[in-house]
Amino acid sequence: MTNFNDEHPDERAWRKKIDHDYDGKIAKLNNALDKMLTADGLAVKYGLETPESRDFDREFLEEMQDEILSGNAEHALEMIDFDMQGHYEVPAVNWAMRSLANLVLGNWQACIDDSSIAIASNSEFAAAYGLRAEAYLRLGDVANAAYAAEQALARDPEEPRGKAVRAMVHDRQTE
Questions:
Q1: Crossing angle for the helix pair 56-69 and 73-85, nearest 10 degrees?
Q2: Distance of CA 74 to the CA centre of its chain
Q3: pLDDT tens column, 83-121
Q4: DSSP annotation string for 22-53
Q5: CB-based burial of residue 111 (10 Å sphere; 0-12 exposed, 13-18 middle, 19+ buried)?
Q6: Half-sphere exposure of residue 86, counting CA atoms within 13 Å on the CB side?
Q7: Do 92 and 119 form a contact (C-beta atoms < 8 A)?
Q8: Distance from CA of residue 120 to its chain's centroid?
Q9: What is the chain's alpha carbon radius of gyration, rounded to the nearest angstrom?
Q10: SS3 category, 138
């Protein structure tokens, strides 16, 4: 057995350097293994999606849109409200999705209120104006429906709700 107290100072310095280098190599290897074994590390290694490459907000909103269109608007509304609680500043698109859920549920005034918040957050958001236009039309407020439809079409000439509401308003006015 080696008595380290009896070793020469040069040998002790050399051994400490070797131990230090060895410990550093082991630490680097462990760090590399730890990184590789994380979900993100494995995703990078095998070319899968990572949190940086995924747009969770877009995925969530697409899922909520699917929920709404498949007849689960109440569930989507609950999920959107829950998601909004986690945001410091709620994006306009979230308010528009909430507006869509309320439109499908027949909550016309809530649809208008949510689309108004979306518009206040992003005044160029054509879809929010389109949702507002349809809700006004369903409430029987043709003047506000026509105005909101024109606002939607001014921002996006192909906005489907804006086009539909404008056509329905025109049809009502020609009767």
A1: 160
A2: 19
A3: 888 878 888 889 999 999 999 999 999 999 999 999 999
A4: HHHHHHHHHHHHHHHHSHHHHHHHHT---TTT
A5: buried
A6: 6
A7: yes
A8: 19
A9: 30
A10: helix
